[in-house]
Amino acid sequence: MTRKQSEAQRVDGFDPEPMVIVPLKHPWRWTAIIVVSVSIAAAARSAISNPEFQWPVAGQYLFNPLILDGLAQTLLITLVVMILAAIGGTIAALMMLSKSRLLSAPAAIFVWFFRGTPALVQLILWYNLSIVVKNLTLWLPGLGTVYSIPTNDVMTPLVSAIVALSLHESGYMAEIVRSGLKSVNRGQYEASACLGMKPNLALRRIVLPQAMRMIIPPTGNETINLLKTTSLVSIIAVGDLLYSAQSIYARTFETIPLLLVASFWYLAVVSVMSVGQFHLERHFSRDERRSNPSITKVIFGSLIKMRQKEILA
């Protein structure tokens, strides 16, 4: 066998001389694993053996009707607020991307204000709106006052919570959507214009589907953050999960078990939402999963063929 044939066989994957592979040692990695494992075991043992946690009491309240009603209220607020925030944030993002200052400037001020002030402050302000505005009035030119209602009748604790959190989250969603739209190459807009698409159609059919890859991950994180932020509505007496737990331990003085119950349900819902976010991200990046392996095979296949030609030449 000639030298060129031997080298060609090695390129094809056949090596007559077996190689001895010596695995790289990672002593510090194993040290870190041992330290972390011991720490977790010690923390778990301390939590389980500590009688002050009152685990049996927490188990009794886990499916308490009042707790489940508060959980349903929390999920309802999260769903409604996220839908309204997505709509409001998308509108604000499109306004900020507009070339008209009359549209972009108010949108930028909207994002600056509602993203810059704390959610708790906004909750209290909207809940006390009747101090500033006594009545909500519909006035039309030429007709005068068409309809008027006391502000307190409209701005109930639940409505105040939804309005405040929706506006607060809209500021964040506006920046998320804006960055997602700007991540799409400008050539996509030009290509859609060459095909005769109107801007609205190009946005729906070309730009937005590509921008969803950048929009979905931070939106999922923001939804999870919103779920936890809803615990602030207990300040204005909205019967969410935390408020329900507080109303129970205010009577029984079993504070720690009820807080453990609330934490369990928050963690359970966040876990389900994380799984949903994972599948959404996979759905909107499915073309990358199809294309990347084939591209890798083509590149390496071409390199191997070029190497074979150099050896046999």
Written overview of the protein:
It is a single chain. By secondary structure, the protein is mainly alpha-helical. The chain has a domain at 75-238: MetI-like (MetI-like fold, Orthogonal Bundle). Helices cover 75% and strands 4% of the residues. It is built from 13 helices and 2 strands. Helix 5 (101-116) crosses helix 8 (157-182), helix 9 packs antiparallel against helix 10 (199-229) and helix 10 (199-229) packs antiparallel against helix 12 (255-284). It starts with a helix and ends with a helix. The model is unreliable at 292-296 (pLDDT under 50). This is Glutamate/aspartate import permease protein GltK. The complex is composed of two ATP-binding proteins (GltL), two transmembrane proteins (GltJ and GltK) and a solute-binding protein (GltI). Part of the ABC transporter complex GltIJKL involved in glutamate and aspartate uptake. Probably responsible for the translocation of the substrate across the membrane.
Order of helices and strands: HHHHHHEEHHHHHHH
Task: Supply the number of helical segments.
Answer: 13
The CATH class of one domain, by name, is Mainly Alpha
Tally of DSSP β-strands: 2
What integer value in Å does the Rg equal? 29 Å
Distance between the termini: 16 Å
Helix share, percent: over 70%
Strand order of the largest sheet: 1-2
Main sheet makeup: 2 strands, antiparallel
Features:
313 residues, mainly alpha, MetI-like fold, two-stranded antiparallel sheet, 13 helices, 2 strands, 4% strand
